[in-house]
Specification:
Blueprint (H helix, E strand, L loop, with lengths): L1 H23 L4 H24 L8 H18 L40 E5 L5 E3 L1 H6 L3 E8 L5 E10 H8 L7 E6 L5 E5 H4 L5 E6 L2 E2 L9 E3 L12 E7 L19
Parallel strand pairs: 1-10
Antiparallel strand pairs: 1-2, 3-4, 4-7, 5-6, 5-10, 7-8, 7-9
Amino acid sequence: MGDARDVERRVAALMRRMSAAHEGHAGDRAIDRRRFLLAGGGTLGAALLAACGSRGPKSAQRILNYAERKNETVERALFRHTSMDVAGASARDAGSAFPAYFIAPSVPVWDGARGPWMLEVSGAVAAPMRLSLADLQRLPARTQRVNHYCVEGWTAIASWTGVRLRDLAALVRPTPDAQYVDFQSFDDDYHESWDIESAMHPQTIVAYGMDGAYLGPAHGAPARIYSPVKLGYKNTKYLTRIVFLPTRNGGYWSDQGYEWYGGI
């Protein structure tokens, strides 16, 4: 437990140090959040290297798990429900260069053999629903030009159009024990679960449009979850189900060692 206490001390010191910066730049999300997380990653990384010592990475698994829990604590402490991501007016949109990614051997495409595409919204809710693409388009739409943050370090800009998840939640009425949301897809059963606070952020949308056109297969058609408050791998494409849950249930990349919270 000595290693765990060392990480605890480092996190506490980091939070005290960055708290002052947070208060001094309350309107600047880039300073509040991204700089904090970058600094936090370096601090915890140093602690983990020290923890490994000469025993190798396997012996550090407990401390790695511990550090991830502390990282999530830091990110949750910084998350502000009213913070809004805004792409710079002079920044260039990625356009056709916006990266495409999927886990299936080829681009997933919803074809007629599957029947009509429908989005199921279910789980810990009072009124589960199934919506067609036309149903989604009849709901109030939001278009947002925002940054996309990849875990690999690059950023791209695009405009997304869709329905706020909080508006869908108002229709299905999550039960009080719904603290997580799982986003599931037809991309070889890819899924990622989120905390309810991030899911209800005003910039979290079920997107069916990108850059003024309908989503194409390379970017998650017919619909995907999209929010700039999460790293790219948390934004499930090829969406088929949104399930409200009382407990978290991991995700495709989260189960392989990527950070579960994945916040920005």
